[in-house]
Write a structure and sequence with these properties.
By secondary structure, the chain is an alpha/beta fold. It has one domain: NAD(P)-binding Rossmann-like Domain (Rossmann fold), CATH 3.40.50. Helices cover 45% and strands 14% of the residues. It has eight helices and seven strands. The chain has a seven-stranded parallel sheet with strand order 3-2-1-4-5-6-7, sandwiched between helices. Strand 1, helix 1 and strand 2 form a beta-alpha-beta unit. Helix 1 crosses helix 8, helix 3 runs parallel beside helix 4 and helix 4 packs parallel to helix 5. The chain is globular and about 50 Å long. It is an enzyme of class 1 (oxidoreductase). This is Glucose 1-dehydrogenase. One of its GO terms (molecular function) is glucose 1-dehydrogenase [NAD(P)+] activity.
């Protein structure tokens, strides 16, 4: 038996990186998966490889949320799980960042998460239960130089998660947030950011001195999506190799 047998899941930002790891693990654990992204070529390739269903999905757009949710419900008659994974990151110091860049990051990361929660309430109420997992970051606990917009969006996800958990508990809908640290993804390894960060000092600050594989985050996400996490809501789960213990960070 899989951890997610019988579950229907919608995963955003699923074409690559952590999102693709979520898609693969959820399928392995028995879920039926619909995933969205704006990276159509990569999304279609992953769908062909795995058998999951891909939809073009800009999380800033309410109409595209409606279409993604409808796809899951029409195909599988219900929706049990939402993973708000879509996110973008750009290294810019405040003095150098344009308002347009700030707005884009906050719109995708924060507004996209809020729209996702709003969009799945009715189908999850109809199913009489649900689990929403919002992907935040360790930057949702500590600010970092050059990541003001990203940190603002990820701090915001914590607040939305806690408010939604209180609002949706009467409908047996659980809402939690996951806070990855140093994960080996294309976004985290962006050359523009890499040249601004002292990689040696960063690794020395870690308790577990390595970057995580994306699937190491996916295992926590899958647990929170499953019935084994039935008493977890409004909670924050770090997957950071001990980075936030304060040792050198």
């Amino acid at each position: 038996m899989g951890l997610l047998d019988g579950k229907v899941a919608l995963i955003t930002g699923g074409a690559r990186g952590m999102g693709a790891a979520h898609v693969r693990l959820f399928l392995e654990e028995g879920a039926r998966v619909v995933f969205g992204d704006v990276l159509d070529e990569e999304g279609k390739a992953l769908a062909e490889e795995t058998g999951a269903t891909y939809v073009h999905h800009d999380v800033r757009n309410p109409a595209e949320w409606e279409r993604a949710v409808a796809t899951a419900v029409d195909m599988h008659d219900k929706l049990d799980v939402l993973v708000n994974n879509a996110g973008i990151l750009k290294f810019r110091r405040i003095a150098d960042m344009s308002l347009e860049e700030f707005d884009q990051i906050v719109d995708v990361n924060l507004k996209g998460t809020w729209l996702g929660i709003k969009s799945v309430i009715e189908p999850m109420k109809a199913a009489r239960r649900g689990a929403i997992v919002n992907i935040s970051s360790i930057e949702g606990f500590v600010g970092a130089e050059g990541l003001s917009a990203y940190a603002a969006s990820k701090f915001g996800i914590r607040g939305i998660t806690k408010s939604a958990a209180r609002e949706l508990a009467p409908f047996k809908i659980r809402v939690n947030s996951v806070h990855p640290g140093a994960i080996n993804t294309a976004m985290a390894m962006d050359p523009e950011m890499a040249k601004e960060v002292d990689a040696e000092a960063f690794v020395k600050s870690m308790v577990i001195k390595r970057f995580a594989k994306p699937v190491e985050v996916s295992h926590v996400v899958a647990f929170l999506a499953s019935d084994r996490a039935s008493y977890c809501t409004g909670s924050e789960f770090t997957v950071d190799g001990g980075l936030l213990t304060g040792a050198g960070y």
